[in-house]
Amino acid sequence: MLKSIGSNQAVSLKLFGRYHKGRALRYKSAHLLRRAVGFTLQSLTRAFQPVKSKGKWLALLALFVVCTSCAQDKRPIQGETEFQKELNAEYKDASKSPLKAKDSKNFKGLDFFKFDSTYVIIANFKRTPNEKSFKMKTTTDRRPIYVKYGELSFNLKGEAFKLNIYQNQGLMEKEGFEDYLFLPFLDETNGLESYGGGRYLDARIPIGNTMQIDFNKAYNPYCAYNDKYSCPIVPRKNYLKTRVEAGVKAFN
User: Fold this and answer.
1) What is the β-pairing status of strands 210-214 and 159-168?
2) pTM of the predicted model, to two decimals?
3) DSSP state of 113
4) Alpha helix (H) ranges present in the chain?
């Protein structure tokens, strides 16, 4: 898996369904907001109707104040791009977030490099069909089976680079992830502005011999936030001898 896993099911839900989850989160948030507003307005309407006792009126008034206060405490999801907003929404949701309880309590948003179109590139894709599968090292004793699926060659700020892209042999058997590819990488921001263990990118099997790589969507493995997860260790062959100032920064 990519980000990290506590279980195979968690991998599918947490790591690879981000965009669908993002839309689901937005729908759920809007739905809850409508319910909250509706309840507040109903309470306000009843408060102006004749009441039989002072206690009942005070109770309704208190309930209105509480609801209004909660609505005011709602803060918009932070983020410069749709990807950043969706990732922040996921991490803000305690039922889906990899954050520890102490970090989740005061979480406002992840730190990102500023979006830079320079890091949205078109790479040449070369399929490598005769590669042998191997057990990829992780931060735990878990050893998922991967295979090198292909090679990506590209130019970044005038320099030529190459990255290997992988396919998780267990994940490809799950519905919806048959064409999922894993692109982990290291760069010279690791341990400084970005997470020391490297970052990940999601990809799909391309049609043709090119693939778009958007480093602005690079994210940290879950292990960057919580050591209870098991995360693939980025192969040294995927080290880029340059600074990739895009995507998620280190978590403090």
Assistant:
1) unpaired
2) 0.72
3) P
4) 8-11, 18-47, 54-73, 82-92, 101-105
